[in-house]
Amino acid sequence: MFSSLVRAQRIVIARGFSSSAAASAAAPITLHGIDGRYATALYTAAVKQNLLEKVEGELKIVDSVINKDAGVKTFLESPLLDRLARKEGVKALLAQGRYSPITANFFDLLAENGRLDQTKKIISAFGQIMMAARGELNVTVTSAKELDSRTLNKLRDVLSKSSLVEKGAKLIVANKVDPEIIGGLIIEVGDKTIDMSVSSKVTKLNALLSQAV
């Protein structure tokens, strides 16, 4: 009876992850690679079951567990475990919390397919899809010293009106401190980078001087 139940669950999850999903359940962005495909499949299935926010929250919990527990990270990345050991390990991991069937079945599928080592990447890719669905865009501002909230808000306002950002996008601005850039800023908007750091200017100057010698 147990094996029949497992087979039934796998049929349900496979249908949920079918590439013939309705347009209304399609991901807002296209991600490639193994992590992108699995994340997109999970997003589609979660949309169909109206469980997007719940699944997103559960993935964040799993990600937190991986970050805090080196043993869990080692288990997920180990290439030596057989299918049964992977599935039992996932069951033990998820037993620590109350996860929805869609999340539990998804990790069972990763264990079955030998893709547990992609867990962190899949969670990250799912986060990218969710941000796109909410019209959010990550902005990382690297500075030699920590910037105050007023400066970051000004940068957000300037960037939101620039050609780098689509109209209506919600910018999620984070400040990263790196003393090695000496001064100036490095601004990363999505996949675009604007390097206005002093270290970059020094590097360019050194290159020019080297060519002149």
Could you explain the architecture of this structure?
With 213 residues, the chain is an alpha+beta fold. The protein is 57% helix and 13% strand. The protein contains nine helices and four strands; from the N terminus they run αααααααβαβββα. It has helices spanning 2-16, 33-48, 52-68, 70-77, 83-94, 101-112, 119-133, 149-160, 198-212; strands at 136-143, 170-177, 184-189, 192-197. A four-stranded mixed beta sheet has the order 2-1-3-4. A hairpin with a 2-residue loop joins strand 3 (184-189) and strand 4 (192-197).
Task: Give the topology, please.
Blueprint: H1 2-16, H2 33-48, H3 52-68, H4 70-77, H5 83-94, H6 101-112, H7 119-133, E1 136-143, H8 149-160, E2 170-177, E3 184-189, E4 192-197, H9 198-212
Parallel strand pairs: 1-2
Antiparallel strand pairs: 1-3, 3-4
Helix pairs in contact: 2-7, 3-4, 3-7, 5-6
Outline of the structure:
With 213 residues, the chain is α+β, with helices and mostly antiparallel strands. It is built from nine helices and four strands. 57% of the residues lie in helices and 13% in strands.
